C-alpha cells in the first residue's frame, strides 16, 4: 500500500498536510500520535471511507478495515453479520468467521444480537468482519479497546500469523509497552507522518528504503507494480 501527499481538512481544521506512507507485504506498522493528531482520519483515508482533499492511495490486493467504533446492526446476531459479510466478500460460507469467533473466544455469542453484546464482544465481531476475507492489507484503528488480556494476546497471535503469511498490517496504537512488536513506528504530527526508531526493523527483501524515512525505515517508494489503485485527487 502506498499513500502519497494526503491532505484533509474539516472546515478550516487542516488535519492531514501531506501525509505519506508505504507499507510492504509482511510488515507490521504502528501509527502513533497525540489525541486529535488525525490518526483515525488517516486510516479512514487509507481505507477509502473518507474522501481526501488531495493525495493518492494505492492498494495492492484486498483491503480489510476495522474502524474504531464497531459498525454493526444492533438487531442482527453475530452469525447473521458473518453471513452478510461472507456474501459481500463472495466467500462460499461463513466458516472462516466461525473459526475466527473460536480463536477470539466468542463463539457462544454467535446467536446474540449485536445490540445485546458487551463492548468487548462487539469489538471482537468488528475485528472478525475486517479479517473475514483474509485481506492482504489490514487497517486496524485501536482494535483491542475493551479486550481482556487473554483476548489481547489472542489478537496478537492472529496478527503475527498474518504477518508470517506476508500480509501487511497497520495498527493505530497508544500503548507504549507494545511498540517493539512493530517493524515500523510512524508518528503523525502536524499532519505528516514521521518515522520513529523501533528495536527491530523488518524490510522484506527486494524492497529499498526511500526518501520518506530515516535510514533504517522502509517508507513510501516504488508503487509501479501495484495492481489495484484508488485515486483521490
Ligand atoms: N467528521 C469530522 N468533522 C469535523 N472534525 C473532525 C471530524 N473527524 C475528526 N475531526 C477532527 O479532526 C481532528 C483529528 O481527529 P482524529 O479522530 O482523526 O484524531 P485521532 O488522532 O484519531 O484522535 P484520538 O487519538 O483521540 O482517537 C480532531 O481535531 C477532530 O476533532
TrEMBL record:
This is ABC transporter ATP-binding protein. It comes from Streptomyces hoynatensis. Keywords: ATP-binding, Nucleotide-binding. GO terms for molecular function: ATP binding; ATP hydrolysis activity. Residues 200-233 are annotated as: Disordered. InterPro entries: AAA+_ATPase, ABC_transporter-like_ATP-bd, P-loop_NTPase. Residues 1-215 form the ABC transporter domain. It comes from the Bacteria. SUPFAM superfamilies: P-loop containing nucleoside triphosphate hydrolases (SSF52540). The keyword RNA-binding does not apply. The lineage of its organism: Bacteria, Bacillati, Actinomycetota, Actinomycetes, Kitasatosporales.
Amino acid at each position: 500500500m502506498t499513500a502519497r501527499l494526503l491532505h484533509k481538512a474539516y472546515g478550516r481544521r487542516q488535519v492531514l498536510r501531506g501525509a505519506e506512507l508505504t507499507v510492504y507485504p509482511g510488515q507490521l506498522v504502528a501509527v502513533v500520535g497525540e489525541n486529535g493528531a488525525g490518526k483515525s482520519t488517516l486510516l479512514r483515508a487509507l481505507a477509502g471511507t473518507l474522501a481526501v482533499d488531495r493525495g493518492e492511495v494505492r492498494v495492492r490486493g484486498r483491503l480489510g478495515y476495522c474502524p474504531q467504533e464497531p459498525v454493526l446492526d444492533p438487531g442482527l446476531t453475530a452469525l447473521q453479520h458473518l453471513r452478510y459479510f461472507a456474501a459481500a466478500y463472495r466467500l462460499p460460507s461463513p466458516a472462516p468467521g466461525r473459526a475466527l469467533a473460536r480463536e477470539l473466544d466468542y463463539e457462544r455469542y454467535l446467536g446474540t444480537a449485536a445490540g445485546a453484546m458487551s463492548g468487548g464482544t462487539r469489538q471482537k465481531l468488528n475485528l472478525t468482519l475486517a479479517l473475514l476475507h483474509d485481506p492482504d492489507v489490514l487497517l486496524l484503528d485501536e482494535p483491542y479497546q475493551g479486550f481482556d488480556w487473554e483476548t489481547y494476546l489472542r489478537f496478537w497471535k492472529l496478527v503475527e500469523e498474518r504477518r508470517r503469511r506476508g500480509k501487511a498490517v497497520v495498527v493505530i496504537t497508544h500503548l507504549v509497552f507494545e511498540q517493539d512488536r512493530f517493524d515500523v513506528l510512524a508518528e503523525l504530527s502536524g499532519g505528516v507522518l514521521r518515522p520513529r526508531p523501533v528495536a527491530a526493523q523488518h524490510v522484506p527483501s527486494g524492497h529499498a528504503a526511500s526518501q520518506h524515512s530515516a535510514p533504517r525505515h522502509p517508507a513510501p517508494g516504488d508503487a509501479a507494480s501495484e495492481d489495484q489503485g484508488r485515486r483521490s485527487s
